[in-house]
Write a structure and sequence with these properties.
By secondary structure, this protein is α/β, with parallel strands linked by helices. Helix content is about 45%, strand content about 15%.
């Protein structure tokens, strides 16, 4: 049993999201109550070719543990080699295999969710990695419930992965064809959890502590994975733990705290340097700032301002202006 599932724990995972769950965002979410981290997915071929940019995706802080590095690809032996290189570099707590990504550029290379419609290759990939890393670290996987509505096969895939030696599986309750539209099918997620003896982590449409509590009570999942809701509101992890412990929602996060968070995230990203200097870093984070503004009064106006922002000073000025505007009108976040 993986340590974070022992003693009846119900871990909250931060879902891996390309361009979102970088080192800085994971650091912040860990502080806000996320239990288990998974990096943005990395290309096994990029690792094998010693691509510096690809390797940078494997970075994490020691404080983020337990943390796994997620790999995608379709060549099992090459992926096993890549996994061992990552273990040598960073010693993550686990290696995660991406069998769920719906993005065309990944699927076109026979990676991600494309392998859900080629179970022999999927099992070859999973088995090769499990055997390749041996007892160095456990191997987990993330899947979707199927390729499309006519081929929902996640319970079968989960049994295959368990037979390969995979130690836990995160199941996103949508098909590849759905992308992120429609509703997550938690009935299928529950069937996956019932089909195997290893932990299944449920993922999809978890936007509050009440959502997580409902799925914990009505399915046999052993943990929850939160993605898009954390992009807008990373406090969801501590709020979920509060709800699971008390059955009550905590008070809304004050606007002042949201602005402090936004400024801290931007400053940490600039200090890290992955996206360049101040101007290019803030340009790359505009969509993130827009997401954080949801729930704040006047959010539509804020998002239009964030679309052109280029400096920390501009964000500081906008924060002061917005908080003064709220105070004049005695407004609070939704």
């Amino acid at each position: 049993m993986l340590p974070w599932f022992q003693t009846d724990q119900f871990p909250l995972y931060l879902a891996p999201m390309a361009g979102v769950t970088d080192l800085v965002f994971r650091r912040i979410c860990k502080e806000l109550g996320a239990d288990v981290m998974v990096t943005e997915f990395v290309s096994a071929e990029g690792i094998m070719q010693a691509d510096h940019r690809t390797r940078s995706y494997t970075e994490f802080d020691e404080e983020q543990r337990p943390v796994g590095v997620q790999l995608f690809g379709a060549d099992g032996p090459r992926m096993a080699e890549a996994a061992n290189k990552i273990i040598d570099w960073k010693a993550p707590d686990f290696i995660d295999i991406n069998f769920g990504c719906p993005v065309k550029k990944v699927v076109s290379k026979n990676g991600g969710s494309n392998l859900l419609r080629d179970c022999p290759v999927l099992t070859q990939v999973a088995g090769s990695i499990v055997r390749g890393v041996g007892h160095r670290v456990p191997v987990t996987a993330k899947i979707r419930i199927g390729w499309d509505a006519t081929s929902v096969n996640a319970p079968h895939v989960c049994r295959l992965l368990e037979d390969c030696g995979v130690r836990a599986i995160a199941v996103h309750g949508r098909t590849r064809a759905q992308g992120y539209s429609g509703e997550a099918d938690w009935e299928v997620i529950g069937e996956c959890a019932a089909a195997v003896s290893i932990p299944v982590i449920g993922n999809g449409d978890l936007a509050s502590g009440a959502d997580v509590a409902l799925r914990k009570a009505t399915t046999p999942v052993r943990g929850a994975m939160i993605g898009r809701a954390a992009m807008q509101h990373p406090w969801i992890f501590q709020e979920t733990k509060h709800y699971l412990a008390t059955g009550a929602h905590p008070e809304p996060v004050p606007a002042e705290e949201k602005w402090r968070f936004m400024l801290r995230h931007v400053r940490l990203a600039i200090e890290w340097g992955r996206y360049g200097k101040e101007r290019t870093t803030i340009q790359s984070m505009r969509s993130r700032l827009m997401a954080y503004s949801k729930g704040l009064p006047g959010g539509k106006h804020l998002r239009s301002r964030f679309a052109t922002i280029e400096s920390v000073a501009q964000i500081e000025d906008l924060a002061a202006e917005h908080l003064a505007w709220m105070a004049e009108r005695h407004l609070q976040p939704a």
